[in-house]
Amino acid sequence: MDIISKKPMEYTSIPRRQKELINEESENDERNYWRKDEINNFLSITKHELSFRDHILFYLLIYTGARKGELLAVTWDDIDFEAGSIRLAKTLYHAEGEFILQTSKTKESKRLISLGTNTLTLLRKWRMRQNEANLGSIHDWDDNKVIFTRDDGSPLRLAYLNEKLDIVIKKHNLHRITIHGLRHTHASLLFESGASIKEVQERLGHSNIQMTMNINTHVTDTVKEQTATKFQRFMEL
What we know:
Helices cover 48% and strands 11% of the residues. The model is unreliable at 1-5 and 17-28 (pLDDT under 50). Helix 3 (52-64) crosses helix 7. The protein is mainly α. It has a domain at 28-178: Intergrase catalytic core (hpI Integrase, Chain A). It has a three-stranded antiparallel beta sheet with strand order 1-2-5, with no helix packed on it. The protein has a two-stranded antiparallel ribbon with strand order 3-4.
């Protein structure tokens, strides 16, 4: 019998029920995304009221469209500061009282997405703070450290960001959305900025383009107004 050095569950992919895959981007009757002014207000609140770590986490959820499990699994070697990109190829999974890094469920989920200069600046500052405080994950996966942890180095609970979001929304009477609504927000603003369905699909890591199209049917009122304006201008030519 061979002795293995790693737990057999590490880097495994946990299959999801087909129903979950189909409904992943479905939305409640109430709007489950924020508009640009609401995002700016929320990030201003997190910057002044939450820890620097939590502010960056919410910033990244909004500016990358990553799933929370993907973001909590990011290690420093996933960040390419020179190329300005982040690799999303794994997710944090909690089972039987242990945290496990599992590979992304589909090849589309394994993706490399670009980061803006402001995002890169925040990540550089966070890396400096970690180095100065000697913070980092007590778990060493892939010869690197998970970026976002508790103060003792243990991984963050998957429900942590949900709870923080609910607290901020309730305290400041913000329009209520779910943590997944931040991903929906990213997609909606991509469409608003002029991105194609294919571009949004690749950035979000959707295996089924129908998921992306479902979001496109719920684009913001701003996009609808822009569409009407474009049509009117075309007809006036």
